[in-house]
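Section 5.1 Outputs to date
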Amino acid sequence: MLALDRAAWRRNREASGFLVSLAFVGLASVRDVYLGGLFQRWSPLHVAIVAFTLCTVVFLPIARAQHPEGLRTLLRRPGALFWVNVTSAIAWISFFQALKTIEPALVQVLFAGVGPLTIRWLDRLVPGVAPPAALHRAERWFHLGLLLSLVATAAITVAGVSGAGALPLGVAALGVILAAGAGISISVNTVLCKKLNEDGVNPTALVALRFPGAIVLAAVLSGPPADIARALAPAGALVPVAAAALLLIVFPIYVSQVGISLASPLTVRVALSLGPVFVFALELIEGRLVSSPYSLAAAGVYSLFAIGAAVARQRATRSAPVGLNPGRARP
């Protein structure tokens, strides 16, 4: 009976985490389309400095007042905190640069799509994480479809038939590499954050201390401090950017962190994989980019394979006997 109760509790957490992650997808879709346009006028590095400084300024006092033990637990793990900062910095700065370079919907395909394909191997990089569940036969086919959709997305971008139009080969290739690299880095970050959640670090404490590394890296890449100050000085420009960063970057990051604390990394990444279709729809409303049927096809096909993979994983989990180690599930 106790084992059954625990299994039901885990399923409820997974379902809640999936729903929270879907809420993040909606917020993140608005963010990506907005930032894709904003980055044509503002440096992604300057926006990163503003947004991630706000993360620390807003959430650190809250964490100190309401979750001091979570902060202490996190500070007692300097190695884990260091790698959380490193992977956050690489993921978000690469992601922002990719949004400036290529179509946001295809950035989302590559960024979110790498997660389900790599999380099983990335789990092994984090000590103390349970062994990944073996893929069943149906899941293998869906994952093959995910891989092919990523290859098609890269080809659409490089061929110049995406919503962003024809780009220099080097620029298009760089955008693809940045988006995929950001996805790999955020997948490692997801595993690290999930392990810290399990060790007693709540989402507020993680958001409060997750981004100093990103602030430092963005500042270093931006050049001399005087140049950064001049770029951020005009109040008429800074205030709306700061407001947008708070609403579309800081708050969604917290929502995402809550989802990570509730669900498994694979569940979170599959939920995020639904984002490209949302982003494409918002691109049509915004009107900045050309409507590309190739981009819509890439986003739709990818999302269908992502949903299929999620359903196959759910069925495999339900069919496994209670108490069976999921890492040893038979194909």
